[in-house]
Protein 1
Amino acid sequence: MTRLPSPNKIKTHRIYTVFEAAEALGRHRQTIIRWIKSKGLLADTRHRPWLITGTDLKTYLGYRREQVRCKLALHHLYCLGCKLPQEPAGKFADYTQQAPSTGMLTALCPMCGSVINKIIRRADLEAIRAKIEVTIQQADPRIVSHTDAPLNVTLESEAQSNVKARF
Ligand SMILES: [Zn+2]
């Protein structure tokens, strides 16, 4: 597997088309499309061109890189605050379906209390539920409707402010 591009190439406040994301990261358009279709990258795919927020792209690349580097256990999530793989606080996590075969596992870090996320395959969910308690949440609001984006946006900005506070 080739090294994933650095999230630093992406600007948080930009909106990218698939073509622009591919260009910014030096990857083929098909690669970006594959990330969206089967690897858990969030995108607004209701209209052409598909749109990806810089924040989602950065988050995706960041978590993918840490997952590769740390060889995380299925039920462990990487905490950007502690820079360590962590088991969810209270062995409890939420799962939000994001694409037909993937979703986001969200939990709290037991050491620093930060929100920790991990993109997982739907197929791994049962194995994870054998280790920790997982509550299935409704699909990400961006898949259903683009106008109101309650919970996940809050979690993301919280995670970001936690990260900023630590650097
Ligand atoms: Zn932590």
Note: Residues 79, 81-82, 86, 109, 111-112, 114 surround zinc ion (CB under 6 Å).
Protein 2
Amino acid sequence: MNHSDEDINKIWHPFTSLVGVQDPIHIVKAEGVYLHTEDGRKILDAVSSWWVNIHGHGNKVIAEAIYKQALLLEHVIFAGFTHKPAITLSKNILSILPENQSKVFFSDDGSTAVEVGLKMALQFWHNKGIKRNKIIAIDGAYHGDTFGAMSVSGPSAFNAPFSSFLFDVDFIDFPSGHNDEEVIRQFEKLIKGENIAAFIFEPLVQGAGGMRMYSNKTLDILISHAKSKNIICIADEVMTGFGRTGKLFASDYLQNKPDIFCLSKGITGGFLPLGVTTCSQEIVEAFLSDDISRTFFHGHSYTANPIACAAANASFKLLTSAECQANIVRITSKQIEFVTKTKNHPFVSDCRSLGTIVAVELKASETSYFSDLRNKIYPFFIEQDILLRPLGNVIYIMPPYIITNSELSFVHRAIEDFLNQLTEENNQS
Ligand SMILES: Cc1ncc(COP(=O)(O)O)c(C=O)c1O
């Protein structure tokens, strides 16, 4: 039995149908922007392996930090105990977040970071003895796959089988640029009542929803309206955090600062799973009580795992280095050039970028995640040894920050080739 059969017999892969899909590609090693396959191919990872791998694969600084930490302290229960990697990481994270952030709570991944943010916000009101039990979110959002995170994600095929188990959430329309005033009015109407506990959003870019980008001015207005009603604002920066949008956090483009931040993905440079939720002092104060029932009774076995924290501290050093910041600026300007060149292509309905992210939205009759175009796009690039995983009819690049100009140009050219192929096919039909 070869590796591929063994995999198919035993493993259930994420977001993957159990029938009618290509065999998974077997990776034996990864270095820089390249994934090395069992049969000797080198695939350029243009999506940072689900958006986590910000410094490229096999980074030696992070690998060594993990090795050293594993020899010293691999894990310890985080209730009643603490350790230096977690303390250092909390100082590091708070040093780059807005000043209103005061405490760090650890979890395992993006979904649990969001789950913690939601529970903190809901318990904040519970502890104060005030009945606020509604959450506002933005249509098309994706906040993760646990039940709370699914509830605040826009209704979609992903969460449809569970819809009757999800809690009730008010969704405002996505502010597309054409309807922002209307969206602000919807929001104002929703917050007229006194029962809204929190407003959760992916600041400036909805990731899994199709790399949809929206105005920081509009989000600022929504947050300021929310704050006027003491509604807790939760920024889900799981995807946008750690430099993706050109600034360290997408919220750095905002005047009004969120009360809670949910972080994960790039935090360990893509080496180990780790989630973090931070909050303002005002939130902390609702939990400062001798009354045990006001405690935040939440935690996971691997909370603040020392090895994951050590990886995150090493990644933090790399991220805040002048070299990495210069790379982010360099990639940002290359992506802008690409947008200028590509946006008027006849098969492109929209081409946009923010920081290191670029998205090319193709004209299509079906624009959802399940667009047929996906079945054309993914294999086209894999055949050219490029990993680009489209979101329906949206091709996007989210590269590791170490990608060189020529590697990025190679990806840009491959997208241009794909668009030209669509033109040729259209001319022939
Ligand atoms: C904005 C956002 N929030 C939460 C999540 C969930 O993160 P995880 O897959 O690590 O649970 C994702 C994942 O793509 C995300 O993009």
Note: The chain has two domains: 3-58+322-428, 62-319.
